[in-house]
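Appendix B, Record 12. Input sequence as logged:
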Amino acid sequence: MRDGETLPGTLAAGRQAPELVEHLYYPAWCQDFGYEIDGYEEFAQIAADMAADSPNVEWSPYAGSVTACLGSNIRHRNGFDDLDVHRSAPPIVFIGNHYDAATLYEWSVTASEQADGHLITYEGYEHTAYGFRSCVTEAVNGYFLEGTAPQPGLTCPDEDVPGGLAATALPQRPVPPTR
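Logged structural output:
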């Protein structure tokens, strides 16, 4: 708040004594997700389930984060409540890459539904599509520059290039137009 007080319920209001950390990733991850795993057998089952669900990827780079929080004494603060979006706000545009190995597509679907947002589905890989894939970039630019929300259920075809990383297949990242 402007008078120097913290807002109730914010991270600053409940802040623990400062601790020196070398990398913010794990403390933030543990506070957000707070995995509760009882032991190796449960972890092995999670790994087996991931391999069964995604046989071509099998392992997300974030899977190791499940064990990073064990014994860390970092308190889990995210209650996994539904999103509470003020309905007077402009519509929120979400982008979900169907085969993103880092962010599950289902998360984009759920967040979009909870926020009554507009989901753009990219049927390709990679962790991002805006600025790299024409259909996604055009839809997002139309929203930000013209105020035109993407059509409901917009699905953009896979533009990935075989034989190389999709992001490096383009000569350079296109710069979004400005007014």
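The CA atoms of residues 124 and 158 lie 4 Å apart.
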